[in-house]
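Just scan my protein:

. . .
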Amino acid sequence: MEILHRQTLQLDDKEIVSRILEGEKELYEILLRRYNQTLFRAIRSYINEQVDVEDAMQNTYLRAYEKLNQYRGESAFHTWLIRIGINEALKHLRSRKKRQNLFSVNDEDHTSNIIQLSDQKMMNPEMKVIQGETRRLIEKAIDQLPEKYRTVYMLREVEGIPNSEIADCLDISESNVKVRLHRAKTLLKETLYNLSLTTEVFEFGNTHCDLLVARVMQLI
């Protein structure tokens, strides 16, 4: 893989697009790396299976490259890219629905990492386990949101995209974005509460139990 010059990495999206169209297609790698996370989260809000998300991402980048001369810079590049990504995700869902109707295939849902938590390098093993369990709980709750709420929540709360850009991506009003976001948060709280009811709290087990047993046995 060609190593891109540090100054090149600082170019803004419009300039990169312009130079790609002039023949420097290797600069497209910058846009891929710059927006991989954003695109992943946008598509992941529609599709659960990791391999299908990656396929949709690949198709999105290929489609965007083919249409790069159509990007006018009227909106942010990532907004334009997300719109293409959402179309690819919806296309995948339509295709899957057709397959299900023809073959009665039941798809399995696979959990993917969609939320970046704090750096775990400085955490002890117990804290890493807690972080991992918390992340899985949140991801499960987000996955249970209806699609239209899940997408807005992912783009706004997880990825941090402004409401105005989300409205542009989804072709809805900004006020509609706010309504969906509020509803998503309400549903998420309810889901997390319901999930918590199935989780034992203040459980004295695992490492704590082992350490206490060991200490007592040494003292008797």
